[in-house]
Amino acid sequence: MNKYLLPIIILIASIGTSIYSSAQNYPAKSVKVIVPYPPGGGTDVIARVLTTQLSVTSGQTFFIDNRAGGDATIGAAIAAKSQNDGYTLLAVSGVPYVLNQIIYSKLPYNIIEDFEPVSLFASGPLILVVNPNVPVNTASEFIEYARLNQGKLNYAGSDQFTYLTMEMILLATNTKITHVPYKGVGPSLNDVVGGHIPVMLSSLAPAIPFINGKRLKALAVTSKQRSQSLPDVPTINESIIPDYEVTAWYGLFAPKGTSKKIINTLSDSINKTNETAEVKKSLTILGTDIVKSTPDEFKHFLKVELDKWGKVAKDTNIVIQ
Prior knowledge:
Elements: H1 5-24, E1 31-35, H2 42-58, E2 62-66, H3 73-80, E3 88-93, H4 94-103, E4 115-130, H5 139-148, E5 154-157, H6 160-172, E6 178-181, H7 185-193, E7 199-203, H8 204-212, E8 217-221, H9 236-239, E9 247-255, H10 260-273, H11 277-285, E10 289-290, H12 295-315
Parallel strand pairs: 1-2, 1-3, 5-6, 5-7
Antiparallel strand pairs: 3-9, 4-7, 4-8, 4-9, 4-10
């Protein structure tokens, strides 16, 4: 054998053995989970339930790193450029993540080409909420109130998902309200609670404490069925728009090139974690359903979501930026 070839073969073999060993022992240190939203939003709250239990079951710390801004594109871009060793992950509210790929023509990443889908882990509805001083108690009363105050009301939009979903409601009910963009659910909820803006669509998890504390009035949820956490709150479908249904989903991604062994280990860990009594109880309180998937199932689901929301964006004439 060529005397120069043998060292190269040994080097390649040692690298392969090192990668395999690293995957076998994963996780061997703390794992950072980037959430591209401020603290207090739905993705942040739900991801903390997941990471807390993953820390318990794995024996290593899974911690949240909030990187808000740019309609959740800043945190996603950071994750896409991170080392693909399984120690930096991305937790997203899925529909905004998909919509950004559709709406922005020049993203610094591509959700198909730059990420490995790991697992879905939860889903839940959005909820229409108003400040308690708004003189309405139902979704139909709110639509009538908005029509009587045409052009005078604003609504808070925390991302492209809540914006587009609210626009779908307004279009279907022939109502006009001005959109005010926010950098996440937490800041927008605080302004609705404070009376600075009257209404918004929020993910359910961060809104529930305000609703239970009588600091927000819940008018309707966007799911087909009522939420088990708020059984007295009707659906949009039963109150103002027949056959209406929109739900949020939450998923975990890794940078492209992360080993399949690590991806599968993470996916299995998430699915097992979602079986624990602690996670089930926490997600139920937050009005969120547990979702399980394999990486391949998640990859297929992601492509279906891209097609579905691409059609919605086209039908509502949303502006490509």
